[in-house]
Write a structure and sequence with these properties.
23% strand; EC 7.1.1.8; Ubiquinol-cytochrome c reductase iron-sulfur subunit; electron transport; metal ion binding; 3-stranded antiparallel β-sheet; binds FE2/S2 (inorganic) cluster; globular; 2 iron, 2 sulfur cluster binding; 190 residues; alpha+beta
């Protein structure tokens, strides 16, 4: 009887110890699997963070400006946002240059917003600096606002012929993106 009890006790201890060891093993195995899984998850995350070829291709936009007559503008797309490319008339250039820069909410001259030798080409993001609507004025017959540039109908911001904010709630001029003329008729934006 006593021997049976001891045997049973030993057996229980043995089994208990065995269970603990098995649990340890299972936990170690689970941690290892998590470690491997963690790495496996990390790799796609890192590879997602690197720009894909599509994104790199989209990071610049090439625009042929040869067909844009003075007084006309086109809307292009740059990094999924609208860009206005506008060929200013001499009168629009004159109007922009006639404004004392210091009187502006966001003081900038037309020369600062265009490239030397290409002062007639006004290239700006087509995104209102108030809350991000797309202003009117680039399309044929669209309302250009009180200052002859662009008009944002969302809350009534008026931009002048240098796309500078002149009236309404927008705090800043339309943003001029990075760009360069790669030829007299081709602009690379970005
Ligand atoms: S978003 Fe243009 S005026 Fe508000």
């Amino acid at each position: 009887m006593a021997e049976t009890t001891i045997d049973t006790h030993d057996t229980v201890e043995g089994e208990g110890g065995g269970e603990v060891r098995r649990r340890d093993f299972l936990e170690i195995a689970a941690v290892s699997a998590a470690g491997v899984g963690g790495l496996a998850v990390l790799y796609p995350l890192i590879s997602q963070m690197a720009p894909s070829k599509d994104v790199l291709a989209e990071s610049t936009t090439e625009v042929d400006v040869s067909a844009i007559e003075p007084g006309q503008a086109i809307k292009a797309v740059f990094r999924k946002q609208p860009v206005f490319v506008r060929n200013l008339t001499p009168a629009e250039i004159e109007a922009a240059n006639a404004v004392p820069t210091g009187s502006l909410r966001d003081p900038q001259s037309l020369a600062e917003r265009t490239k030397e030798g290409y002062e007639n080409w006004l290239i700006t993001m087509g995104v209102c600096t108030h809350l991000g609507c797309v202003p009117l004025g680039a399309g044929e017959g669209e309302n250009k606002g009180e200052f002859g540039g662009y008009f944002c109908p969302c809350h009534g911001s008026h931009y002048d012929t240098a796309a500078r904010i002149r009236k309404g709630p927008a705090p800043l001029n339309l943003e001029v993106p990075e760009y360069e003329f790669t030829s007299d008729t081709t602009v690379q934006i970005g």
